[in-house]
Amino acid sequence: MKVEYANPFVQAAVETFQKEVGVRLSRKDLKVKNSPVPSQAVSIIIGVTGAVRGQVVLSLDENVAMAVTKAMLPGKLPAELKKLINSAVSELANIITGQASILLAGDHGKIDITPPAIVMGGGLSMDFLNLQTICLTFLSEVGSLELNIALTEGQT
Amino acid sequence: MKRGLIVDDATVMRMRLRDILQTKFEVVGEAENGQRALELYDQLKPDFVTMDITMAEMNGMDALKNLVARHPDAKVVMVSAMGQKAMVFEALSQGARDFIIKPFDPDRVVMAINRLFE
User: Fold this and answer.
1) What are phi and psi of A28, to 5 degrees?
2) How far is CA A29 from CA A25, A148, B40, in A?
3) Which of B16, B84, B102 lies closest to A111 in CB terms?
4) Residue B12: which of A88, A107, A108 has the nearest Cβ?
5) Complex-level ipTM beyond the 0.95 threshold
6) Per-residue pLDDT for A12 more than 70?
7) CB count, 10 Å around CB of A76?
8) How many angstroms separate the CA of residue B71 from the nearest CA in chain A?
9) In which domain, by residue range, is B110 found?
10) Mean of the per-residue pLDDT values of chain B
11) Which one of A77, A114, B64, B69 has the fewest beta carbons within 10 angstroms of its own beta carbon?
12) Domains in chain A and their CATH numbers?
């Protein structure tokens, strides 16, 4: 896992949050772990193939998930917003990963991503890649979130 | 009024695009993947299509190729987070008329669709 893979995700997360949610993210922490297992209540898993490959897992608490949904769909009623949380946070993860892949692919590479898979609530067991992972944590006025980046060099 | 078909796997994005487009155009259908987009295009014969790329079943790039092969005059605007140079080039060379990268400004979407009919 190259540490330079982290910067495009930091930039993509900060810019996407500002634009889509209207909230400023500040980076709290960076740590290295052995797999992208997330630690918060709502997690979105995206597979990456091409010039880099692996998994990206965005994980956020329920307050942040609701704030994201509310910001993406202004004017909708709370009951309606609750049903749309999965879709909103999945799209957010898709946009962050898409934006980061523009930076990672550069002028010549090509990176593809899978449609997001979402896991909500605790007590669930899932298989994640055993791949050295950079775990970035961010703070915001609506709560915290975590970005687990488990990527390795792929085919160009 | 020009009639549009929205193709995106995310309900939230389809709702947002509908809200934006309905100010100037008629939205006649929504599809959540490329396969459904091809079916709805044949049924509804829209004047334009907004097409996401990352979708299950059939992705937007394959749907674009299929659609343009069957309807060479189809007016397709890609709306995707996958704005890498290689992807933008591939989509435009396969017949897409424009490529909007998410996150987008609502005005950019309306402007792209307006330009299709100038």
Assistant:
1) -100, -45
2) 12, 12, 47
3) B84
4) A88
5) no
6) yes
7) 16
8) 27
9) 3-116
10) 97
11) A77
12) 3-153 (3.40.1550.10)
